[in-house]
């Protein structure tokens, strides 16, 4: 009897796990990341690093995407990437910091020694950018991120509506000079019935 009970318990556990997994997958398709604003700036006022840069958002309010491009004065083989993801909360509660990290930019390009969230972000970015797979950044190319929209189905299950503030950019190693910085204000929101894909 004991083996039979264990087998029934195992089947029950697998069934519950599959049910939870299905609910999570369905929950992810109920939400989207709506970008409200995207700006960029640079501390490189003397143009030692950058030839030019620009960024912005498309004009389509229903399917907001953002873009950024830059060109360097000369090839760059050493730099750092920083990223901060914060979920603001009502006072007096402190904001929830999901990620606050500075890492070697060359290792990030070639996917070495990364935390899983950064590795996931790097893989998603491949669809929208012409970033190289390894250092250096060349000085004669315009690097870009274009038409970027976050597909929440690529992330672990999201089941809440919340504002999101993301800050990311590049800085000179050891000096901390941020030669390019992007600031994104967005929100995770439930997809309206009109936008929701119809199930056949």
TrEMBL record:
Keywords: Signal
Domain of life per record: Eukaryota
Pfam family, one: DUF1091
InterPro entries, alphabetized: DUF1091
Signal sequence bounds: 1-27
Name of the protein in question: Uncharacterized protein
Natural source organism: Drosophila guanche (Fruit fly)
Taxonomic path: Eukaryota, Metazoa, Ecdysozoa, Arthropoda, Hexapoda
